[in-house]
């Protein structure tokens, strides 16, 4: 089922939680709502579900206005961060619950329920736990059962709110792979909320990046990562060096230091901008750690002078932390070979050049 969100607005008192949000969720896709804590992800999910009402705007399910449709009739399945399993029921009874509480007319027979629940438990690969109680399961197993329970009522939409948020890193990783393959099998239109960029990049077909009740960017993981539309998205997707300076022709100037802009930005300097005050030339540039390069002697090309703080070994990757002359911390990636040949010492002066920079014009520095 496709979902359309049209001009959704939501206030909590004076606080503007969602600001005129419009989004299309195509049939059968797995979409991540990604953003920092408090940006409005859960509120949007709850409005789509019918658990919360909006101040204005519409929710269309399969093209039909569902804004005033009760949650029970929207045919959505939920999975929340904190396992909402019934503690006094076995795994089997938990999964069967949604079917057993149906009105008699639409309720399947016990034999049919047994068949469906067994099939779902096989799907989440936990058939052997049917007789256990939630307290006898691991966190990851509980979330898989919660998913089986959400699927039991054959929802047309699956909404997941930080489904793996409470689990440790290894189990999270396993479960997100498993969710992706389950989705590839079932193709239920699914929206999941996360503040974990790695999770969104790994699992989703599309990512909606949110910030302070607004949408910053919508795109495939590749698009969002390779072409972040705003400084916020660049920052949020992580691990980039953010430098604020002034653009002067082909260069970015930071007090005493300079970096050269990559070729693809340089043609823009041919057309002088109409002056709107001095802030016009203020720019934000980002460089990923592998786009910066360390020199132990001052290079002839423009560079940033910095001091070595330390190098960090991060799961096979080497990152050197530097502090530049403006006091900013920079992270530069090195291969093990580069680390050996540079032999950097804490406190040593080095120079940094950039093989690529990502420029955001007209942002006040
Ligand atoms: N019932 C409520 N009453 C008042 N304010 C609320 C209510 N629900 C949410 N908010 C506020 O609205 C904002 C958005 O909340 P929401 O839960 O949607 O954020 P989120 O992006 O899901 O964050 P998190 O990742 O922390 O769950 C927050 O600032 C929150 O404090």
UniProtKB/TrEMBL annotation:
<dbReference type="GO" id="GO:0015419">
    <property type="term" value="F:ABC-type sulfate transporter activity"/>
</dbReference>
<keyword id="KW-0067">ATP-binding</keyword>
<keyword id="KW-0764">Sulfate transport</keyword>
<dbReference type="InterPro" id="IPR017871">
    <property type="entry name" value="ABC_transporter-like_CS"/>
</dbReference>
<dbReference type="InterPro" id="IPR008995">
    <property type="entry name" value="Mo/tungstate-bd_C_term_dom"/>
</dbReference>
<dbReference type="InterPro" id="IPR005666">
    <property type="entry name" value="Sulph_transpt1"/>
</dbReference>
<dbReference type="GO" id="GO:0043190">
    <property type="term" value="C:ATP-binding cassette (ABC) transporter complex"/>
</dbReference>
<dbReference type="InterPro" id="IPR024765">
    <property type="entry name" value="TOBE-like"/>
</dbReference>
<keyword id="KW-0472">Membrane</keyword>
<dbReference type="Pfam" id="PF00005">
    <property type="entry name" value="ABC_tran"/>
</dbReference>
<dbReference type="Pfam" id="PF12857">
    <property type="entry name" value="TOBE_3"/>
</dbReference>
<keyword id="KW-1003">Cell membrane</keyword>
<feature type="domain" description="ABC transporter">
    <location>
        <begin position="3"/>
        <end position="237"/>
    </location>
</feature>
<dbReference type="InterPro" id="IPR050093">
    <property type="entry name" value="ABC_SmlMolc_Importer"/>
</dbReference>
<dbReference type="InterPro" id="IPR003439">
    <property type="entry name" value="ABC_transporter-like_ATP-bd"/>
</dbReference>
<keyword id="KW-0547">Nucleotide-binding</keyword>
<keyword id="KW-1278">Translocase</keyword>
<dbReference type="InterPro" id="IPR003593">
    <property type="entry name" value="AAA+_ATPase"/>
</dbReference>
<protein>
    <submittedName>
        <fullName>Sulfate ABC transporter ATP-binding protein</fullName>
    </submittedName>
</protein>
<keyword id="KW-0813">Transport</keyword>
<dbReference type="InterPro" id="IPR027417">
    <property type="entry name" value="P-loop_NTPase"/>
</dbReference>
<dbReference type="GO" id="GO:0016887">
    <property type="term" value="F:ATP hydrolysis activity"/>
</dbReference>
<dbReference type="GO" id="GO:0005524">
    <property type="term" value="F:ATP binding"/>
</dbReference>
